[in-house]
Design brief:
Jelly Rolls, globular
Length: 162
Amino acid sequence: MKLKGVIFGVLLLMIAAGCTRPVQSSSYINLNRLSGWEENTPLKLTFEMTDTIGESELYLIGEIATKRSVEGKVGYPIKLTFIAPDSTCYTDSITLPLHVIQDGKIARTSHGIKEIEWPYRKNIYNKIPGIWEVTVSKGDPSNDYSNIIGLGIRCKQLSYER
């Protein structure tokens, strides 16, 4: 009986140790609320993708100050550089649209800030588990990006069902 208790205790410790660090599925950078994303410095984000069987989705998330002039703007061109855990690099250029419909409406706070979640990629079947790094750069440094007051990335790992 003592041996079973020791084995059970060791298994319990192994499980508890494995659960001490939660999966970081998103990363977000708050920028200065008054000046926004002014500098041409790229933003560094990370997220963890552990599932190599199920489907995943990536979303860019952000806050746009709507009290400032955004008239006539369609969106913000950005460049994304993904660095996989095995150091493989992937790049992409996209535009973050200002006018996004979510659940039939645009999400806003009462303080003149629009919260937006942009779907980036769906139906991802990741074969490289671990922590991914993302560098977000301005696609056109001559454009005014000061309305962007927060930017991040979120990985949603969908459950695998047989």
